[in-house]
């Protein structure tokens, strides 16, 4: 089994109620939803969310770009269950 495609959706999910911190008012959550597709038609999904992105330096835009341009191409052809090899290669 090999990974043949990666679909990526950056989404903003509005909160029912905004809240405020010393850094400002927060009215939505930023998330990136990821779908892996294998040559056997098996799919898997994952998600990344961003809390206090201003502190960590990552944003929905930077993570989406990294997935599209860097990590996505690395994953192609790997067995999705060979996590150790994927992690070793991705570093």
Would you summarize the structure shown here?
The chain has three helices and three strands, in the order βββααα. It has 91 residues and is of the alpha+beta class.
Write a structural description.
- The protein has 91 residues and is an alpha+beta fold.
- It has one domain (3-90): 2-Layer Sandwich (Enolase-like, domain 1).
- It has helices spanning 53-56, 60-75, 83-90; strands spanning 3-21, 24-38, 43-50.
- A three-stranded antiparallel β-sheet has the order 1-2-3.
- Strand 1 and strand 2 form a beta hairpin.
- The longest helix is centred in the C-terminal third of the chain and has 16 residues, at 60-75.
- The chain is elongated and about 45 Å long.
- The relative contact order is 0.23.
- The model has no long low-confidence stretch (mean pLDDT 89).
